[in-house]
Write a structure and sequence with these properties.
By secondary structure, the chain is an alpha/beta fold. The radius of gyration is 20 Å and the shape is elongated.
Length: about 180
């Protein structure tokens, strides 16, 4: 497997190219020096399918995402953000102080760039809504806007009706909106 970063593609030389081209409609056959190669877009959805077929392509986030913010992510944060971006359901059980908040927001921002998601709903304790989540969105992701959904039931409904990229609510807020 070859990674063409400039083309955002994975290149494979396969004995049976139809094994990939039949299940990944975005895969293309290309000729190079007499060989037939398979070019697959290096995006999360295609990587998931390739992994199901037994290939081991690297996470695309690591290659193409421009990690915003003041700090370069630690290796554990990169690995966690990749994991969150590549799995439809996941828990982030990292220890305190390892940057779970910013890591989760990086994963969301990347998935948003890839047009896999539009909005994020953060359900967190009341104590972390403003000073943790909203502050992190403001500091690290100036291109995103966050709405802290807190107050009376009517106020929460009004805040949810307003356009935002990230909605931050606590568990009690969800109970009373339903």
């Amino acid at each position: 497997m070859l990674i063409r970063k400039d083309k955002k593609a994975l290149i494979f030389k396969l004995r049976n190219p139809s094994r990939v081209t039949t299940v990944i409609p975005t895969a293309r056959l290309v000729s190079h020096e007499g060989d037939t190669l398979v070019a697959v877009p290096h995006r999360p959805e295609e990587v998931k399918v390739l992994r199901n077929l037994g290939f081991n392509p690297p996470d695309p986030m690591e290659y193409y995402y421009q990690w915003p913010g003041r700090f370069k992510p630690f290796a554990a944060q990169v690995e966690t953000a990749n994991f969150l971006a590549m799995h439809d359901r996941a828990f982030c059980l990292n220890s305190m102080g390892l940057g779970k908040t910013v890591t989760s927001l990086w994963a969301y921002d990347y998935m948003r760039e890839c047009k896999l998601v539009k909005k994020a709903l953060i359900v967190c304790p009341l104590s972390t809504m403003e000073r943790t989540w909203a502050d992190e969105v403001f500091k690290t992701f100036p291109h995103l806007n966050a709405s802290v959904v807190y107050g009376t039931r009517e106020r929460r409904k009004k805040l949810l009706a307003q356009d935002a990229d990230v909605y931050i609510i606590n568990t009690d807020g969800i109970k009373t909106i339903m």
